[in-house]
Write a structure and sequence with these properties.
It is built from six helices and ten strands; from the N terminus they run E-E-E-H-H-E-E-H-H-E-H-H-E-E-E-E. By secondary structure, the protein is an alpha+beta fold. Strands 1, 2, 3, 4, 5, 6, 7, 8, 9 and 10 form a ten-stranded antiparallel β-sheet that branches.
């Protein structure tokens, strides 16, 4: 919850979206966003978020399923047609890549990269059984400056706690973490979550 008197300033926002065919049967979508500066301040605290970047890539989407979904959205088409289009897309699977999520918080770097793969599945399997979770796998790598707790004192207790629990590892001048999703189980630095 934000205090009542917070000053917010935002500069240099840009976004870019692309949709392209991979081959005759699949396509990919990419999204990039950049924010030069976001400042939040109140009487006691100041948070400067600078050089922020987000880059996402969705790869291997089934072209026919995507086209059917586009054709059925917003036209009062029966739910069954939408489900069939989604099932066609899910049958092929896809990969969501977090190519870059990075920023500097009060001058200290934070970066994340990774991907999530969806193996061949269906709507019913994905949402109504453990088999749906089995279809998902992925990894996320986080790299935080070891000076982040000093630069953003509000984060220091949480960073210390995560380090004590083994979810963050001190490595040279950084705190690192690897989050994995495999066969329905999530681990952080090989520790169960």
């Amino acid at each position: 919850q934000l205090p009542e008197s917070v000053k917010l300033s935002l500069q240099g926002v840009s976004t870019n979206t692309q949709l392209a065919g991979d081959d005759a049967q699949t396509l990919s979508s990419s999204y990039q966003m950049k924010v030069d500066t976001l400042n939040l301040e109140n009487e006691t605290d100041n948070l400067a978020l600078t050089q922020s970047k987000l880059a996402l890539n969705l790869k291997g989407l089934d072209l026919e399923g995507y086209q059917a979904l586009q054709a059925s959205s917003g036209q009062g088409v029966e739910e069954e047609a939408i489900q069939q289009a989604l099932d066609k897309m899910l049958k092929r699977g896809a990969t969501l890549e977090l190519a870059d999520l990075s920023a500097k918080l009060n001058g200290e770097a934070v970066t994340m990269k990774g991907d999530v793969k969806l193996a061949s599945t269906s709507l019913e399997q994905l949402f109504n059984s453990e088999a749906g979770m089995q279809a998902l796998s992925g990894v996320l790598h986080a790299n935080l400056s070891d000076k982040l707790g000093k630069a953003v004192p509000q984060l220091a207790p949480m960073l210390d706690q995560l380090t004590l629990m083994g979810y963050l590892k001190a490595d040279k001048q950084a705190l690192t973490s690897e989050l994995k999703l495999e066969k329905g189980a999530v681990t952080v630095n090989d520790l169960p979550l």
